[in-house]
TrEMBL record:
Quaternary structure note: Homohexamer.
Cofactor remark from the record: Binds 2 Mg(2+) ions per subunit.
EC numbers, comma separated: 2.7.6.1
Main location: cytoplasm
Stated name of the protein: Ribose-phosphate pyrophosphokinase
Molecular function GO terms recorded: ATP binding; kinase activity; magnesium ion binding; ribose phosphate diphosphokinase activity
Gene3D superfamilies assigned: 3.40.50.2020
SMART domains: Pribosyltran_N
Enzyme's top EC category: transferase
Primary role: Involved in the biosynthesis of the central metabolite phospho-alpha-D-ribosyl-1-pyrophosphate (PRPP) via the transfer of pyrophosphoryl group from ATP to 1-hydroxyl of ribose-5-phosphate (Rib-5-P).
InterPro entries: PRib_PP_synth_CS (IPR000842), Pribosyltran_N (IPR029099), PRTase-like (IPR029057), PRTase_dom (IPR000836), Rib-P_diPkinase (IPR005946), Rib-P_diPkinase_bac (IPR037515)
Gene Ontology terms describing biological process: 5-phosphoribose 1-diphosphate biosynthetic process; purine nucleotide biosynthetic process; ribonucleoside monophosphate biosynthetic process
Length: 309
């Protein structure tokens, strides 16, 4: 096995390699003066099982292009099998044609990865389940829930209600509620722009309850903070939020700081762009991804990684 890492999230890659019990494969990655990316794998990987770790988060275009070039380098170096490990799959929100003359960019990214030469993909908490169907190669889709639920069981009080901040997150909220033995509620929202959201109504009773907002990702925190204000008006005793992928920009951090959300629980699937402040708790998914890598390498089942004890 050889584990390669792009420049997107070196810290996570090192934690994964340590959990696997190996070192990162040596590689040279740099940019030419005109911005073109150069990759050279400086170890022999002929006939090896190669895993390339690279979340395609901010800046998504640079990180995606770097990943494609690393895949091509590994293929031309005669790697036996190449697995792209994407803790975060960029462009996942563009997964359908909901307006005239718009692309389905999540499918385009899948086509690019396959064309570059990957044999399988390992990812976590896709924005939409159907993205797995965009690939004609094996996809191992992990969930951060085992890591997050373990923390919530230790830290959250009784009388919990899991809240979906929009109707699209209802399935995920119901899954968390089942794992936590909690009730379920959902917030209806109206998106005014890419950064501004209005929470319009609440379905479910949260009065006197400890609410946990659950979402797969956040960047401006608009959806979460709007939902939190609606929960306060509905009489929630406390409000926490959990997201698998925190893409928070500085505006999102400011919104979070001024919101009634007491704590935001995130994972280290992507590096943070800003100082996220004291309200944010970061949980590591390195061991989860490392275990999946080891099982893929040994051709073992990864099903038990979805189990929560």
């Amino acid at each position: 096995m050889k584990i390669l890492a792009g420049t997107a999230h070196q810290d996570l890659a090192r934690r994964i390699a340590k959990a696997v019990g190996t070192e990162l494969c040596a590689a040279e990655i740099r940019k030419f003066p005109d911005g073109e990316i150069f990759v050279k794998i400086t170890e022999n990987i002929r006939g090896r099982d190669v895993f390339i770790i690279q979340p395609t988060s901010f800046p998504p275009n640079d990180n995606l292009m770097e990943l494609l070039i690393m895949i091509d380098a590994a293929k031309r170096a005669s790697a036996k099998r190449i697995t792209a490990v994407l803790p975060y799959y960029g462009y996942a929100r563009q997964d359908r044609k909901d307006q005239p003359r718009v692309p389905i960019t999540a499918k385009l990214v899948a086509n690019l990865l396959v064309a570059a030469g990957i044999n399988r993909i390992l990812t976590m908490d896709l924005h939409a389940q159907q993205i797995q169907g965009f690939f004609d190669i094996p996809v191992d889709h992990l969930y951060a829930a085992p890591v997050i639920v373990k923390y919530l069981r230790e830290k959250t009080p009784e009388n919990l209600v899991v809240v979906a901040p929009d109707t699209g997150g209802m399935k995920q909220a119901a899954a968390y509620a089942d794992m936590l033995g909690a009730g379920v509620a959902v917030v209806g929202k109206e998106r005014k722009s890419a950064e501004d959201v209005a929470a319009t109504h609440l379905v479910g009773n949260v009065k006197g309850c400890n609410a946990v907002l659950v979402d797969d990702m956040t960047s401006t925190a608009g959806t979460l903070t709007a939902a939190a204000r609606l929960l306060v008006d509905a009489g929630a005793a406390s409000i926490r939020a959990v997201v698998s992928h925190s893409l928070l920009n500085c505006k999102g951090v400011e919104r979070l700081a001024n919101s009634p959300i007491e704590e935001l629980v995130i994972t280290d699937s992507v590096p943070q762009r800003c100082d996220v402040g004291e309200k944010v708790k970061v949980l590591s998914v390195a061991e989860l991804l490392a275990e999946a890598i080891q099982r893929i390498h040994s051709n073992s089942s990864v099903t038990s990684l979805f189990e929560i004890t």
